[in-house]
Amino acid sequence: MHTVLGYLRPYRFRVAVGVTIKFSAAVFELALPLLLAHVLDDLVPLGDVSAIWRTGVIMLLLAFGAAAANITANRMAAWVSMRMTETLRNDLYRQVERLSCAQLDRFTISSLVSRLTNDTYHVHQMFDKVQRGGIRAPMLVLGGLVLTFFQDPVLALVQLLVCSATFVTIWLVTKKSIPFYAKAQTAVDTVVRIIRENASGVRCIKALACQGQERERFASANETARDAEITAGVSMAAANPMTNFLLNLGLVCVVLVGAVRVDQGAMKSGSIVAFLSYFTLIQTATLGMAKIFVKISKGAASARRIEEVLLAPQEQQIRENGREFSTDLGMEQASFSYLGVENDLRDASFSLERGQTLGILGPTGSGKTTLVSLLLRLYDADDGVIWVSGRDAAAQPMQELRNRFGVVFQSDMLLTESIYENISFLRDLPEEDVIAAAKTAQVWDFITSLPQGLQTRVDIRGANLSGGQRQRLLIARALAAKPDILVLDSADSALDYRTAAQLYAAIRRDCPGTTLVIISERVASLREADRILVLEDGRITHQGCHDQLVEHCGRYRRMAQLQMGGGQA
Ligand code: ADP
Ligand code: MG
What we know:
There is one protein chain. By secondary structure, the chain is α/β, with parallel strands linked by helices. The chain has 2 domains: 2-179 and 235-310, ABC transporter transmembrane region fold; 329-564, P-loop containing nucleotide triphosphate hydrolases (Rossmann fold), CATH 3.40.50. The chain has 21 helices and 10 strands. It has helices at residues 2-5, 12-46, 49-98, 101-107, 109-133, 136-151, 153-200, 202-207, 211-236, 239-263, 269-310, 368-375, 398-403, 419-424, 431-440, 444-449, 467-480, 497-510, 523-526, 546-552, 554-564; strands at residues 329-336, 345-352, 357-361, 383-388, 391-392, 405-408, 485-489, 515-519, 531-536, 539-544. The strands form 2 sheets. A 6-stranded mixed beta sheet has the order 6-7-8-3-9-10, with helices on both faces. A 4-stranded antiparallel beta sheet has the order 2-1-4-5, covered by helices on one side. Strand 4 (383-388) and strand 5 form a beta hairpin. Helix 2 (12-46) packs antiparallel against helix 11 (269-310), helix 3 (49-98) runs antiparallel to helix 5 (109-133) and helix 10 runs antiparallel to helix 11 (269-310). The longest helix has 50 residues, at 49-98. Magnesium ion binds next to helix 12.
């Protein structure tokens, strides 16, 4: 709670002013019933019309004053809580950006999204409601009870009892219901997730004709959400009727007990009217207090979830005085495990000169993407050394390290922006660099064939492009900033053989000093490479150039024969 509460600090002056305004409004509101009793008990029997008018005007002014003060303070509260929520959300977003990939995996993306949206909303609600009612409600309750106590202790006791009953009822009912609402929220999250999966996988679902199963999956998630909402609704069903009942019960008690007291001559009849006003005031304030408590307990839970992220330590340190290496890029005995159970990459060693090409080949899940993720320090190796541009990767500032790379990953996305923006990718690159990159990536002819050229908009997820066009745009993006090292992770899977060959030839021609790392399942794409790694189950089983591998690695030879009819072609 501490860290999140700290976001209130810059606004503490405003909060104090707002709370003071609320305080005076509560004083006005508490004075009203007293004046009412005064009119009824003292002025009416005297028939002093002008005094009645005067008091009436004062009461009107108080009522207006209270309303105006409450409106002003509520506006200030809204202003403060919205602004601090904005700052909190910004910081949270920045922190999420700062998290390492391993931390992202642990938190999971969907949980981070809900912390950024749902949880900041609950914290906002908490701050807003506490500022609006945190002082006002308890003050009305206490002030009301104290004032009435001096008028008639017995009636005040009746009020106290009924109010305590109300508070306890609301507290218990909502306390019991909150977990149900949390469950309902999770169920709704699942529904949303399925909708999102369906939307992104719509082609696959249609192609495999599994709409039926998807409909069932959706229906069952929907059913779970329904049941959870019903449980929550049912458990909350008692809240409003119970409070109304207690309000009515209290009013009846006040009138009955009051009538007896008036009959005994212990109090004046006008006080009963004042008591009724106080009672309604106190009862409403009690409800308000119970609701604030609920907001606080929800808000505190959310604040904890937000703080977990905000206070997550910086995991990836920059090592001091890292080693220098004689080669440009490489690994020595590097091992890594995502979950700390089984090594997803084991004892990987290789090295490469500047401007050379590294090919990586291996079945799905063999650790190809993992290997390049370690080069980029998306994850940190558990063991071994990794060097980039001749220097220990762990000793280079993150930004500097990553700026050396141009990368295309399998799962990379296009933005719903112009083609130019997609290649330049928020880096404000000059147009000639973008055009040069597009030419090298073999996508310039396609771009010029479009009526709006570079300014053509890419639809969501690149839906208006073919798979090959998308891949070449991504390659152009990776090339555009003229990286030292270009990593292409299965970036040729949707290209025909001729285009792929032209692409690699163009990259070699246009970027002579660039070190290339090509992950591909095509022997044709790798055969020119200076060094090819064959991966299996997280291990580099063989490495060498094409000819060496054809000779020594059975698996490679078979692939080459299969794909190229003999491997020597
Ligand atoms: P490839 O790129 O060769 O298809 P990967 O390097 O992506 O394979 O994956 C290697 C292994 O690591 C696989 O067994 C995969 O299940 C596991 N893996 C990959 N990414 C993660 C992750 N973020 N969390 C846990 N395990 C992962
Ligand atoms: Mg992969």
